[in-house]
Amino acid sequence: MTPRKQIHLAAHFPGVNNTTVWTDPRSGSQIDFASFTHLARTAERGKFDFFFLAEGLRLRELKGRVHDLDVVGRPEALTVLSALAAVTSRLGLAGTVNATFNEPYELARRLSTLDHLSGGRAAWNVVTTSDAFTGENFRRGGYLDRADRYERAAEFVRLSRELWDSWEPDAILADQAAGRFVREGAIGSVTHHGAHFSVEGRFTLPRAPQGHPVIIQAGDSDEGREFAAATADVIFSRHGTLEEGQRFYADVKARVVRHGREPHQLKIMPGVTYALGDTEEEAAENAAGIRRRQVGPQTAIAFLEQVWGRDMSAYDPEGPLPEVEPDLSEGVSQGRVAIKDRAAVAAKWRALAQEKNLSIRDLVIEVTGRQTFVGTPENVARRIDEHVQAGAADGFILVPHLTPGGLDDFVDKVVPLLQERGVFRTDYTGTTLREHLELA
């Protein structure tokens, strides 16, 4: 009998986006360290693989004004994770850091430092940026063409690994045991001359506890899938349904093999949300309430403007979709992921609104604000297990709708049921994130 696959779980700090229900009285600060501590400790209590932080290099704008949600602040990820290393002992610590607006030597040092401080729990979510809007905060500006961003990222990761590998394994331990400082030759010199980077020198830190920090990649484009298949240890995807997940899973795992790797060397973990209830009806009611609070009237109009590319503030969010056509010349939103084909998206939204007789707000709720897993704890545990056993995912990154207590119910009510099924650990068996993810 084939053993049941073990499920991997991670916790995403909700951050500044429309997932968070800001109006809930239990919603707390996005920058107070106590918020990060609460969510991280809850995830560690639930024996999760890692805690995950996103990144924001510039405040987003809508019609030339700072987007309302961004005013709560966007802390720098590795600083927060270094502090969390002191208040956790097993939980992996994953930070999103941009490969377009950083330099390999410095970032490799920061990530290696986190890995040493945490005893081998560091992870890097590699992201790229091609837009000049974000680049205005940096010396090089928006100099990269979109086609070049993954090329730079791939070279960035290769060079970082050269730096991490430049010290002999266990050089310090061996030399300390012999009563001497690190001997000549134990520290290698790195010489790299590529299309994007030129580095000659010696790295300042010995090999980290888990060798390399875990590499995470978030992307659904063909370039993103290829980059993950060749380079990453984890891919953070958006495919929450069983059928979509199975197609994505099969495609990416096949690419992994084509790159000469084993399928298990890349874990596929979609980002998901959830809503629980004592009954299926109560869970559905909770989910509907969360969706309406996530997409308030102002947010509904903001989403519409991103697709229509024009000021829609004169329209009633509780009224019907207007007849006006999208302005495809330029958008009104900056700092968000670009919508590739706004005309096609607008046509799809209009057809859906007509079919279901939806208001603007109900339409936006329908297309953006839904929970992946809705039901009783027993039903949610069963469905999560089914997705993993059916080859739709290796696990999930949970994105709660509340900061910082949004993970509490899942850890208290769903995790024990997964443990009873024999598909999730009852305790950590290793100390490093690579061991948690079965990559070691």
TrEMBL record:
SUPFAM superfamilies documented for this protein: Bacterial luciferase-like
Q: Which UniProt keywords apply?
A: Flavoprotein, FMN, Monooxygenase, Oxidoreductase
For this protein, the record's InterPro entries field holds: Diverse_substr_monoxygenases, Luciferase-like_dom, Luciferase-like_sf, NTA_MOA
Enzyme nomenclature, EC number: 1.14.-.-
The answer to whether keyword Secreted applies is no
Q: Which GO terms describe its molecular function?
A: monooxygenase activity
Against CDD domains, the record matches this protein to: Nitrilotriacetate_monoxgenase
Claim: rRNA processing is one of the keywords in the record: no
Q: Where are the transmembrane segments?
A: none
Occurrences of domain Luciferase-like (ranges): 27-392
One Pfam family of this chain: Bac_luciferase
Record's superkingdom? Bacteria
Enumerate the Gene3D superfamilies for this protein.
Luciferase-like domain
Q: Which family does it belong to?
A: Belongs to the NtaA/SnaA/DszA monooxygenase family.
According to UniProt, the name of this protein is NtaA/DmoA family FMN-dependent monooxygenase
